[in-house]
Amino acid sequence: MDEELKQKLIEILKDKRMLEILKHLKKANVDYGKSIMLNTKIPIQEVVDLLDKLEKIGLIERVHGATLKNTEAKFKLSKEVHKHHTYYRLTREGDHLLRQLDENTLIEGYIELVKNDQFALDILRIADEVNADHALTYAKLLHKTLEEVTPKLEELEMTGLIEEKNAKIIKFIDRRSKPKKETRTHHKYYGLSRIGELVVRELKRKGILPK
């Protein structure tokens, strides 16, 4: 992946939903906001905003013309439809990015995103150590205020490196910071996602995070 495309990958990794939309457009070929909303479960106003960002980055483009054939818009059932909506498709560059995006490239993109952000690195390190815990625990372990830590956790959740752990009971094996065998989740619990675990493993291998 060339440097320009790599920078665009880093930009879209700041919000994992942009990658979801790109992958959907790869399948759909051509699609519009409401249909993208139904297929990705992203609220419509957020879809509109994300489409605008992706268009500005140059990874998608608007489709011109009055009608679309269903061979172009694969999620349309009728053979030909009048365009009542603004339709989008991947640009050549957007398609090129997805073709090159394997797991290793994705991990390297995330590393580029966080490697110079010490706050993000500290949170990823703590998430790896505690496995799943609420923001207050992160704040205590990092000697920061809850007001400082919560937005950063949410920012990393937006990237997809951190995710909310939804289990009503988190067992001790999944939560290493407290001695209780199990604990009710009265707060929102954060832990590494699968891709987050892979990124942390590579950060350790590269010496960016301590082993």
TrEMBL record:
Pfam families given in the database record: DUF2250 (PF10007)
Protein name per UniProt: DUF2250 domain-containing protein
